[in-house]
């Protein structure tokens, strides 16, 4: 994994990348003399890459649905080329579960998020701002990343007590927890999300602490905020204990 940071630092240095804003990933790939092709790939495959001697190729599906997904796919494939030097495919499933169990996919994803939104940059941002969806939206827009990938990324890096939960029909699809000191209780599976799903977008509001924390600590306050994804009929909820 250290290797990954080393490779990215070398790229930043060698190609003089400005990590204060979204990097031009297509330009970087061109400058690295990697051939970039947009093609019809089989259903569910977003990208692929190939290394053959000195020849390097990245293929992106013409069906990527937006700029953010295209950038993530390109960065992911670039990760495979630089770390694994082989032939790989990137499927749709990899996008929703962002970090899959397969080691190489995991490494390529980690490479992609670190290149597109370096942890150093996030640390600076969260030092100066409160973490909420307003901030996550701003960062996502500035770095041309999806809201979900940015939420996960910020949750990973922050020391605040945050958990993000992706849900639908009162069922959790996935969740990510920060390294904050307070240990959220582990009863997410039984948690009542229907309460949240009655409304659509819910701005940050104070809720009872015992909804999320088993101990009744008067010292803390609990805040909840939710974004509704109309097209998917899914919700992302950010819970923060301060
Ligand atoms: Zn891959």
Can you give a write-up of this model?
The protein is an alpha+beta fold. The protein has a five-stranded antiparallel β-sheet, covered by helices on one side. The chain has a four-stranded mixed β-sheet with strand order 1-3-2-4. A hairpin with a 2-residue loop joins strand 2 (45-52) and strand 3. The protein has two domains: 2-116, Arc Repressor Mutant, subunit A (Orthogonal Bundle), CATH 1.10.10; 119-241, no CATH class. Mean pLDDT is 87; it is low at 94-101. The longest helix is centred in the N-terminal third of the chain and has 18 residues, at 67-84. The protein has helices at 2-14, 25-31, 67-84, 92-96, 103-116, 119-128, 133-143, 147-157, 194-197, and strands spanning 35-39, 45-52, 55-61, 88-91, 161-168, 171-177, 202-207, 222-229, 234-241. It contains nine helices and nine strands. The structure holds zinc ion (ZN). Residues 76, 80, 88, 90, 105, 108 line the site of zinc ion.
């Amino acid at each position: 994994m250290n290797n990954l940071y080393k490779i990215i630092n070398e790229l930043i240095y060698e190609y003089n990348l400005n990590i204060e804003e979204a990097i031009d990933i297509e330009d970087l790939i061109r400058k690295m003399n990697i051939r970039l092709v947009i093609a019809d790939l089989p259903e569910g495959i977003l990208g692929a890459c190939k290394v053959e001697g000195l020849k390097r190729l990245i293929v992106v599906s013409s069906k990527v649905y937006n700029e953010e997904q295209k950038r993530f796919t390109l960065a992911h494939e670039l990760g495979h080329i630089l770390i694994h030097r082989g032939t790989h495919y990137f499927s749709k499933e990899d996008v929703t579960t962002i970090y899959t169990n397969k080691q190489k996919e995991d490494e390529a994803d980690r490479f992609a998020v670190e290149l597109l939104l370096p942890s150093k940059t996030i640390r600076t941002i969260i030092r100066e701002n409160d973490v909420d969806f307003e901030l996550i939206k701003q960062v996502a827009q500035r770095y041309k990343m999806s809201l979900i990938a940015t939420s996960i990324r910020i949750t990973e890096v922050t020391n605040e007590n945050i958990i993000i939960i992706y849900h639908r029909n009162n069922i959790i699809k996935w969740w990510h927890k920060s390294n904050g000191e307070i240990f959220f209780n582990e009863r997410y599976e039984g948690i009542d999300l229907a309460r949240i799903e009655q409304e659509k977008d819910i701005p940050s509001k104070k809720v009872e602490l015992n909804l999320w924390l088993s101990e009744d600590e008067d010292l803390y306050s609990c805040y909840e905020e939710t974004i509704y994804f109309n097209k998917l009929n899914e919700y992302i909820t950010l819970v923060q204990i301060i």
